[in-house]
Amino acid sequence: MLKKLFGKKESTETVAVPDAPESVEGEAPPALEEAGPPESSEVPGEEPKLKKGFLRGAWEATKKLALTPVDPWFEAVAKGLDRTRQGLVNQVSSLLRLHGRIDDSLWEELEDILITSDVGTAATEKIISQLRALAKEKKMTTADPLLEELRGILGDVLGYHDEEVPTEPVEPLNIVSGRLNVILMVGVNGTGKTTTTAKLTHRLKGQGHRVILAAADTFRAAAIDQLLVWGARLGVDVIHQNEGSDPAAVVFDAVSAAKARKADVLIVDTAGRLHSKVNLMEELRKIKRVLTREIPDAPHEVLLVLDATTGQNAVNQARTFNDVAELSGLVLAKLDGTAKGGIVIAIRQEFQIPVKYIGLGEKLEDLQVFHPKPFLAALFGESDG
Questions:
Q1: pTM of the model
Q2: Order of strands, edge to edge, in the sheet holding 367-369?
C-alpha cells in the first residue's frame, strides 16, 4: 500500500512501529478519518499535500502489517530455502517470462534447470512430461502459466493433499507409550548425524519422553566424546564403551540400561560409515540383529541423515542404506546452506521414503518437521497462509 502511495521500494525487514500520535493535554484526540484517496492542494513548485486522515489510515495499515505474527516454522524454512529458491524457482520463473512462447527449446532449458537443481532425472522426466500434457490439454500459448502448474506437480510428488500443517511429520515417529522405543540413526561421516541425534533428543524430551542415548560409533573417540558432551548438555544418560569396542555390545548394554531405567526412547548413534564399505555395512546389520533379539519389533525407526549439500550423492546413499537397514524416514540436514534443496523432490520421487525432518541451522531448535505445504510456499516465495 505504502509503495503505491509514496513510490518507495518495500523492505522485508521488520521495523519498529511508532505509537499513534497522542493528543495535546486538554484537547480531544483527533478523530480518525477513514482512509481514502489522497486529497491534494497542488501549488506550483510545491509537493502535493496529503490529507491528514489518509496518513492516519496508512499508519494503521502499516501497524497492522508489522504486528502480524509470522509462523516461525515458515520463517525458518523460507530462510533456509533462499538459495534453492534462487537456483530453481527464480530461474524457472525468469525462463518462462523471457521465453514467452512454448516450444522445444523451452522444454530443454527447463529440463537443464531442474537437473542442475538436483531435482533428479526421474523426477525431472515426470515433471516435464506432465507439464507438456497440461500445456496441450489447456491449449496454452504462452509459458507464464507453467509456473503454477509446476508448483502443483511438485506438490503431487511430495504427497501434498492440501491438509493442515501438523506439529509432527505427516508420517510421525513410531513411538508407542508403554514400551521401549528404539530409533536407529544411520548415515555417512560429515552429514550432521550426531548433531541431529542431539536435536531429536531435545525435541523428544520437550514432549515429555525419557530418552537415553547409545554411543555405538566406537570407531572414533571423538564421536563418543561428542555424544557425551551433548548428553551432559541435554541432561540425558549416554551408554558408551571405549574406542574400538564392539558397537553391537554397546547397543546390548544400552537396551539393558534403558529397560532398567524405564526409558521411553533409546536413540542409537551409529558409526558414520561410508555406504560403499561392505564390512561397515555388515556391522550395521549386526546391530539390527542384536536389537531385534532383545526387542522383537525393534528398531521402531531407522532414520538416515543426509547432507543436503551433497546433492545427487545423497540419493546414492539413500539407495544403499535402504537395502541394508530398511529405512523408515529421512532427515535432510544442512538445508540452510545449499542451493540443492531440490534433492527433497528427487528422493521422494525415487524411494517414496518420507522426509520426516529437515535441519535448518546449528541450534537445537533448528530441527524442523518437514511438511510439503510450507516447504512449497517457501520455495515459491509465497506466504504461509
A1: 0.71
A2: 237-239, 211-216, 265-270, 181-186, 301-307, 329-333, 355-359, 367-369
